[in-house]
Amino acid sequence: MNIEEILNTSQIPKENIKYQEPMKNHTTFKIGGLADCYIKVKTVEELKEILKIVNENNIKLTIIGNGSNILVSDYGIEGIVAEINIKKYEKIEKTYNNTSNIKNIEIILGAGNKVSEVAQKFLNEELTGFEELSGIPGTIGGAIRMNAGAHGKEMKDIVETVTVIDRCGNIKILKNEEMEFEYRKSIILQKKYIVLETKIKLQKGKKEEIKRKMDELKEKRKQTQPLEYPSAGSTFKRGKDFITAKLIDEAGLKGYKIGDAQISEKHAGFIINKGNATAENVLQLIEYTKAKIYESTGKTIEPEVEIIGRKLKEESKR
Fold this sequence. Notes:
The protein has helices at residues 3-8, 44-57, 115-124, 140-145, 187-191, 207-224, 244-250, 279-297, and strands spanning 17-22, 34-41, 61-64, 70-72, 77-84, 89-97, 102-110, 127-128, 149-150, 153-154, 159-165, 171-175, 194-204, 257-258, 261-263, 271-273, 306-308.
């Protein structure tokens, strides 16, 4: 039986399933070939059924969120792509931190909640501690998986617990210290867990102060990042003892293009899609940039963007 025949007998809503789906429609890079099967997953029960199906039928499974930190192969993705769209918003408890008299508020968020949407909700409810993260262009699940961060704050700084499911369908709750958070990584990557929800801790604040900070950071992003073009966010990881974007800038690579993939003239740490860039264009530009930086500085830079999907045909020739 093929994937379509198998899924036809499942309980997953048919309107949430698409076949031969262009992944460029589901990535912020606007790049990517066809997924054999694309499913928008809205409940834990649906995800459990998908895990059972892929395990029993030896089908490849790829998990994505908002598609904001990935580069999908021009040759698409084999098997099933599951977009985690499990949403939740629940304030569960209010306590006082006796040492500083700060009111801490715990909130449960679904993995499929968009960071930008919960940031707006926190503003409306006068909750502070999330402002620095408000511009991350992804979902809560993806942000936890990569320990996303901005302006000196990372997800690890606010996460209390994370509820995950493993590839066999077992659910477990991990405490912050069990998450093994590091720069742009967590135990989620290592164990291939799928995030279901998280409990975070914020504080009660003043709406005008929260809004002012969010507006300032938004303006800073507009001035310094190429938000007007499709991208996967920051393309390269920060070095241990260097700022990668600064090295790329100093190497004179701003504006360098391969096809329609270009190193942003506004921020050298971003590769942008100027119109019809392919994944191969982006990969060639990443490799060219890595080689130039190593040649000029002796330093090795690493991509932050995750490359997924069928291997590019050109790669097999290298």
